[in-house]
Specification:
The protein is of the alpha/beta class and 425 residues long. It folds into 3 domains: 172 residues, FAD/NAD(P)-binding domain, CATH 3.50.50; 145 residues, FAD/NAD(P)-binding domain (3-Layer(bba) Sandwich), CATH 3.50.50; 81 residues, no CATH class. It is 23% helix and 24% strand. The protein is built from 7 helices and 24 strands. Helix 1 packs parallel to helix 6. The chain is globular, with a radius of gyration of 21 Å. The chain starts with a strand and ends in a 32-residue tail after the last helix.
């Protein structure tokens, strides 16, 4: 009997996995079914640009079903639960999908309601998030009305999708306010629960230096516990230790959780609903025939599109190996890279994995894009990535010259960090 593969989620991870598996298993007659609650695939890196008028919301959305190749089946419905003992997914519409292999690619879910007061009367009026399309679009309108004051970027807690995006927002806000001629009457503040700009020491020092250079004040170790709003607009962030930061306009990155159904499967996920996953094979710890990819996992790596791409190569191989009864490939090393837009048509690039933090040098080798250094070339790379996303990454194609494992050549390793292990991206 041909293998039945069910993939929950039609975002980056679910789509590229379905397309890669289609190519690998087409001749074997395997059936591949992808499930998601809607048919709207959002290019999430583009959300950063929407508030500043650098991207049209309509240009970063396409139908999920059209990103899937050939006979891959698409079901537009939610997931009620997984009955692992029967190898069956029960869908929100009451129908059932049996599987031989299940892939969980349901991403991360924004949970602004978990911060007291955040979704009160000022939500969507003086406090917004740019982490979904509606919020990014509304924030664009609010920024156009903004005429100075205190603009606060607040990272509530980790983990989040694209951990560098809050910093990118600060950098682009600095550029945007200069362009509008109101930078001198705007105070930019970055409020974070971290003890620095980023979680890796070398990158944190570089990015923190850029914030300082651009006049962005950083408030560290601030764990937002409550948000209150003023009747005349604006509001106050209050941390659990009693500190307060007032704002006239706030861009908030709220708490992220995993999918609801994960919590209804004992042993599948952690306390936030992210799926417990083997860091090298992408096989879940709950069941050998269940794999996970991308933002849905609890892996100690950034929740970013590049991570999902690199994971996808290993996961696809391992699904095939599992179906053939062969040993899995422990080939994923935590490889992640990310362009960091810094404004004024420049960007940084970082490249790292489980063992190695972002370091200076070049990518993907001694000659290439500069790492941890602002450049116009990196900015162009950031812009070009959208084309690669739709035409290379989602279709499940390899990027020439860039493999799953982090390249060692081209990186400059300071002696103090050459053997450091960083477990959190």
């Amino acid at each position: 009997m041909p293998a039945r593969i069910v993939i929950l989620g039609a975002g980056t991870g679910g789509t590229l996995t379905a397309n890669r598996l289609h190519r690998r298993l087409e001749d074997a007659g395997a059936t591949i079914t992808v499930v998601d609650r809607d048919d709207r695939h959002v290019y999430q890196p583009g959300l950063l640009f929407v508030p500043f008028g650098l991207a049209d919301p309509h240009d970063i959305v396409r139908p999920r079903s059209r990103q899937l190749l050939g006979p891959v089946r698409y079901l537009e419905t939610g997931v009620d639960r997984v009955e692992a003992d029967r190898d069956t997914v029960v869908l929100a519409d009451g129908s059932e999908e049996p599987y031989d292999v299940l892939v969980i690619a349901t991403g991360a879910v924004l949970a602004p309601e978990e911060t007291e007061g955040l979704t009160g009367e000022g939500w969507g009026r003086s406090a917004f998030t740019f982490y979904d399309l509606e919020g990014a679009t509304a924030l664009h309108d609010a920024l156009e009305r903004f005429d100075g004051g205190r603009l606060v970027v607040n990272l509530v807690d980790l983990p989040i999708k694209c951990p560098v995006a809050p910093l990118e927002f600060c950098f682009l806000a600095d550029w945007y306010l200069h362009e509008r001629g109101i930078r001198d009457r705007t105070e930019l503040v970055f409020v974070t629960p971290l003890d620095g700009a980023f979680t890796k020491p070398v990158a944190s020092a570089t990015l923190g230096g850029l914030l300082e250079e651009k006049g962005v004040r950083i408030v560290t170790e601030f764990n937002t516990g409550e948000v209150t709003y003023r009747a005349d607009g604006g509001g106050t962030l209050t941390s659990y230790d009693g500190r307060e930061v007032e704002f006239d306009l706030a861009a908030v990155i709220p708490v992220h959780n995993g999918a609801d159904f994960v919590g209804r499967w004992p042993g599948l996920g952690d306390e936030l609903g992210f799926v417990a996953t083997h860091p090298a094979t992408l096989q879940t710890t709950a069941r050998p025939n269940v794999f996970a990819i991308g933002d849905a996992t609890s892996l100690p790596v950034s929740k970013a599109g590049s991570v999902t791409h690199f994971e996808g190569e290993v996961l696809t191989e391992n699904v095939v190996r599992f179906l053939e009864g062969r040993e899995l490939d422990a080939g994923y090393d935590g490889h992640a890279n990310c362009f960091i837009e810094t404004g004024f048509k420049k960007a940084l690039l970082i490249d790292f994995n489980y063992e190695t933090e972002p370091l200076p040098g070049h990518f993907p080798g001694p000659v290439g894009m500069p790492l941890l250094k602002e450049s116009r070339l990196n900015h162009l790379g950031k812009l070009m990535f959208q084309w690669f996303y739709w035409h290379t990454l989602l279709p499940g194609r390899d990027i020439p010259g860039i493999g799953t494992r982090m390249p060692e050549r081209g990186k400059h390793r300071p002696a103090a960090h050459a053997t450091d292990r960083e477990d959190t991206p």
